[in-house]
């Protein structure tokens, strides 16, 4: 059994449910899908950032008073799982200008059904950084596990990885956290189950196709 405290689900506010209602609607235009998905993505990234270590920082305000605040205490890096994960990059860059980004491309083999690593390009000092791993969909967990393995081999400690995700299936969460109990996951929704074709219920369809306008 995995550590449920490692899963940080966004508060299911009326506003968040309204945003989900728009992007889950099969009749949503691409323009609406992108705009309202981005609003949820921003909430996910803010929540993920809040899990990072901070340290005290005192500043002087314009009236000469002191404010005891905080600042990020670690070096940060974003890594997107191509292609759908790239949808989350613009919001992260807007929050953290100049942030270093890595890329991982994983594709499922048509015969073995296993994930194959086709490409990865990471900052050379990624082992010294905390990583926000960006992947909107977590279904069976195969691709996410492969991406995490790439980061671990690059020297990133498991506890320094935060998996930022839009929708997660229970089976994918279980696989992920049983294999990597120190990992933390931020998601906007834990779905009911998977279909035989590994689509989530109630789901959203193919996120990448809907976001980038390549749905047939």
From TrEMBL:
EC code: 2.4.2.9
A molecular function (GO) term: uracil phosphoribosyltransferase activity
Superkingdom in the source lineage: Bacteria
Alphabetical UniProt keywords: Glycosyltransferase, Transferase
SUPFAM superfamilies: PRTase-like
InterPro entries linked to this entry: PRTase-like (IPR029057), PRTase_dom (IPR000836)
Every Phosphoribosyltransferase domain range: 11-214
NCBIfam families: PRK00129.1
Official protein name in the record: Uracil phosphoribosyltransferase
């Amino acid at each position: 059994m995995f550590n449920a405290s490692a899963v940080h689900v966004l508060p299911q506010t009326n506003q968040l449910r309204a945003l989900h209602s728009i992007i889950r609607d099969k009749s949503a235009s691409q323009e609406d899908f992108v705009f309202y998905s981005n609003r949820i993505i921003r909430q996910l990234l803010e929540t993920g950032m809040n899990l990072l270590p901070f340290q005290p920082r005192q500043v002087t305000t314009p009236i000469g008073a002191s404010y005891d605040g905080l600042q990020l205490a670690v070096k940060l890096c974003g890594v997107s799982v191509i292609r759908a994960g790239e949808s989350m990059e613009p919001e992260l860059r807007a929050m953290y200008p100049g942030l270093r980004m890595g890329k991982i491309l994983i594709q499922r083999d048509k015969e073995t059904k296993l994930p194959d690593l086709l490409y990865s390009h990471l900052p050379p000092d990624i082992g010294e950084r905390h990583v926000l791993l960006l992947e909107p969909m977590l279904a069976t967990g195969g691709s996410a596990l492969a991406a995490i393995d790439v980061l671990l081999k690059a020297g990133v400690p498991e506890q320094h990885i935060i998996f930022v995700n839009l929708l997660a299936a229970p089976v994918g969460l279980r696989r992920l956290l049983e294999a990597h109990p120190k990992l933390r996951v931020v998601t906007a929704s834990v779905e009911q189950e998977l279909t035989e074709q590994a689509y989530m219920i109630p789901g959203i369809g193919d996120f990448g196709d809907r976001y980038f306008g390549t749905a047939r």
